[in-house]
């Protein structure tokens, strides 16, 4: 995961890391011998993992430096992870986290009117994979937005394309 140092840890007090989406905050502690510097400072971009069994404690915190990525790293595939959905009335909002080596995390949000699922005979369970395909296509063709949230709405065009990609059932 990636985030920014919000509060710098001291030997006696944990620090805070805010995820790049701003949605989550994590504690972290120094684990280096006294006097050894790790290069962390308030506002710096860091990579980290979550401590096993703890959803709020960051471990393996280290500075993310753009020079640590080899030339051509910008051609690496952007990773996208589904993080759930929210629904308000007839609109479902699918949420994803997108990241690529050397860049900050970006939240991606895709909304869809549930009437489109019914109109095109697409099951609601296909929603996350349909949105994921759209995100992979569009985020691979564009540079990351300066905004921490990338937003898009599914249209008739994407629903038709999804339906056309489905295998047809053959009658025997």
Please explain how this structure is put together.
- This protein is an alpha+beta fold and about 170 residues long.
- It folds into two domains: about 1-65, OB fold (Dihydrolipoamide Acetyltransferase, E2P), CATH 2.40.50; about 75-165, no CATH class.
- The protein contains three helices and nine strands.
- A hairpin with a 6-residue loop joins strand 7 (about 90-100) and strand 8.
- It is elongated.
- The termini are far apart.
Task: Summarize, please.
The protein is α+β, with helices and mostly antiparallel strands and 172 residues long. The protein is 19% helix and 34% strand.
Secondary structure layout:
Layout: E1 2-7, E2 15-19, E3 25-28, E4 45-50, E5 58-63, E6 79-88, E7 91-99, E8 106-113, H1 114-120, H2 127-141, E9 149-153, H3 156-165
Parallel strand pairs: 8-9
Antiparallel strand pairs: 1-2, 1-4, 2-3, 4-5, 6-7, 7-8
Beta-strand percentage? 25-35%
Unreliably modeled segments = 33-37, 66-75
Please tell me how large the radius of gyration is. 20 Å
- SS elements, strand count: 9
Largest sheet: 5 strands, antiparallel
Mean pLDDT, nearest integer?
77
Helix content: 10-25%
Structural class assignment: alpha+beta
Number of helices: 3
- How many angstroms separate the termini? 50 Å
Shape: elongated
Whole-number count of domains: 2
**Secondary-structure element series:** EEEEEEEEHHEH
- What is the spatial order of strands in the main beta sheet? 3-2-1-4-5
Fill in the keyword field for this structure.
172 residues, alpha+beta, OB fold (Dihydrolipoamide Acetyltransferase, E2P), 2 domains, five-stranded antiparallel β-sheet, 3 helices
């Amino acid at each position: 995961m990636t985030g920014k140092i919000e509060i710098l840890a001291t030997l006696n007090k944990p620090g805070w890391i805010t995820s790049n989406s701003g949605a989550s905050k994590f504690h972290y502690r120094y684990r280096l011998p006294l006097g050894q510097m790790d290069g962390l400072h308030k506002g710096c971009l860091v990579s980290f993992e979550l401590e096993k069994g703890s959803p709020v404690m960051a471990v393996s915190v280290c500075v993310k430096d753009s020079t640590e990525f080899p030339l051509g790293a910008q051609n690496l595939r952007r990773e996208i992870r589904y993080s759930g959905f929210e629904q308000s009335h007839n609109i479902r909002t699918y949420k994803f986290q997108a990241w690529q080596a050397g860049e900050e995390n970006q939240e991606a949000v895709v909304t869809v009117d549930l009437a489109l699922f019914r109109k095109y005979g697409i099951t609601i369970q296909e929603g996350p994979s349909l949105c994921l395909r759209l995100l992979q296509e569009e985020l691979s063709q564009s540079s990351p937005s300066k905004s921490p949230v990338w937003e898009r709405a599914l249209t008739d065009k994407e629903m038709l394309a999804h339906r056309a990609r489905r295998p047809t059932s053959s009658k025997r």
